[in-house]
Amino acid sequence: MDLRYTDEENSFRCEVRAFFRTAIPADIQRKSILGQRLSRDDVVRWTKILHDKGWATPNWPKEWGGTGWDPIRQYIFKEELLMAPVPEALVFNTNMIGPLLIAFGSDEQKRHFLPRIASLEYWFCQGFSEPDAGSDLASLRTRAIRDGDDYIVSGQKIWTTMAQHANWCFLLVRTDPEAKKQRGISMLMMEMESPGVSIKPIITIDGCHELNETFLDDVRIPIANRIGEENKGWDYAKYLLGHERSAQSRVGLSKMRLRRAKQLAAGVRSGQGMLADDPRFRERLALIEVELKALEMLTLRVIAEGPANGVSDAKASILKLKGVALQQATIEILMDVAGYDAMEYDSAFLRGAEEPAGGEDWALTIAPNYYFARHVSIAAGSSEVQRNIIAHSVLGL
Length: 397
Prior knowledge:
alpha+beta, Butyryl-Coa Dehydrogenase, subunit A, domain 1, four-stranded mixed beta sheet, 47% helix, Butyryl-CoA Dehydrogenase, subunit A, domain 3
């Protein structure tokens, strides 16, 4: 199998790289490099730039406003985006609800929602996890009861990312409490301003407000906002989670962090010399680079096999499991580069303040991003869940 890029693909990479270098506003670029949190306005501004270029939904088919790129070009685009670094378009829109509607939505839903999802007129959040249904998602208890042309929905969701910015939510609800737990679930789309919806912030260890609890008290959701068939929501959720997990390798992000660690280490003193010249530090970098190259080759092999049958649960789990391990390893090595400077905690600077209160600006966001990176072992299914899937699907255990 030849995994080398063609001349056309290399030319495409140069085009993407040049666009990211020139199109991104300077203030958003600086925040991305320093690892600061983006404001809602930052996300909207950058999405408009991508949308005007026609690149906001690179993985969508052309007929629904996508680029029509093949999987290799989609991979190159994502890698260059993460290495630049520039922000991704909102993943809940472009990688989750959009592809789900393309695969299972009605024609009316596609015509109405997809253009608004691509432009970020509709900002979606995800309502899956519940206080007693996280890794065991099929145990969810949020209830939806039919009443005429509506469902009346009551329950609670948790870890609802960016719900404070969202005006729509796609969520899983139980529509048949008598069925086996995976068989009585449906997928709905809900307007966040509907009567009965309330959110409560969850402030994470990095001091930021990204997560929320979402409470649903007799919320009316039109049956027309159901995706696909009633009680088939678990199948749609598995499709969506497969897409989410296979995207978690994030090779470009780990490459960018390694590159940054090397650059910063050249200016950090360690013992009698510079950290970049320390043999043990160089050995750690080399080991991570070897593992990262192996993950990159596996990702390209999965892409090369073609999308005919989609990405299997086992392959998606392998990409997710190894990808998040390397994301955590690369932020850990940046922590070592920053040393004590990383402990000059400044949550205001992390949230996008113009000037740091003290310390090196490049170091002030590393510790909180290290803390935040612990969650990637849990998001889209914990590492323990991924190991169980691999054991079952590959080893037959």
